[in-house]
């Protein structure tokens, strides 16, 4: 059930979601959370690949593991799932009918992969000129790599992210390291949803809207390069490629983890005022007056000397004691939590980050846990209308809305088109 009766910001927008795995579904979940009606089209029997990417698997009402992977639930909330075989002529006809009524299509097939089914942009644009069509691929629609398949791990490696993640060569555990989440896929989903919102505004804006849709070409590699952010900017400014430095920030100090008396603690000092207050609190106000440490630039240049002083001091208190000491002094300091500890954090619990949604699919899974959308809109809030669906849970419902009779739906089932 919705958490609010207020219409969502994208209420009335219809999205035909032909994507699978993570980047595309992340984008369409963003649109669904904002109120769009997202129809997720899946392969009959098999469904989205991530339904099988386990363990871990969802548990049924009796507490037993099912065959449905929890991965799928990360990015398919608020959607309706239908099963359609797009290789079947009657399946294609259904999708064309849906595309004719849609505002947005999102797909992540290989370049040109949907042309054979008449589901490419040019074909659908002729049918529906207002359509916004977003393609997500590894390397974009053109260029020497356009035909290659692209996955998050591959792009993390190619864009240089793994070269700046992890401990430096020669240190224990040194070497290239991927981020613990498929961040390129997630960022691509976020960029894609932003591009779709921009295209909707360009089409519908009351003063400048064109009334026409457009094509959006999203590439994981493009996104991977973009999210290098300050590291990319530093390289472009100097011509020097950054390397791995563990948890040390290349442009700030001290901004890293430290051993405490009972574990580890994080200091994230971003300006000279914070550093001065830290020095006062830990009993070394003279550090802030030392020319080597008085400014951030100096601290970065004399990082080794600073760490030589900091490390033994940081071991004198427990993590909790450091947090308590610095909390009221506006010095950023915190624990290094496990995921379990993060979900149990008082602030995380207060903000309602973990949500449980009922799933009325008759498949033995009564409810599904999900992570709240972090966008907090005051007038058109995110809603939680549906749990991530079971495979084909809404096929009959959606086809009825298209005007198909029960007899016609049974015939399509018999023909294995749905």
UniProtKB/TrEMBL annotation:
Single GO MF annotation: CoA-transferase activity
Alphabetical list of Gene3D superfamilies matching this protein: Crotonobetainyl-coa:carnitine coa-transferase, domain 1, formyl-coa transferase, domain 3
Keyword Nucleus in record: no
Domain of life: Bacteria
Keywords: Transferase
Pfam families: CoA_transf_3
Membrane spanning stretches: none
PANTHER family: SUCCINATE--HYDROXYMETHYLGLUTARATE COA-TRANSFERASE (PTHR48207:SF3)
UniProt-recorded name of the protein: CoA transferase
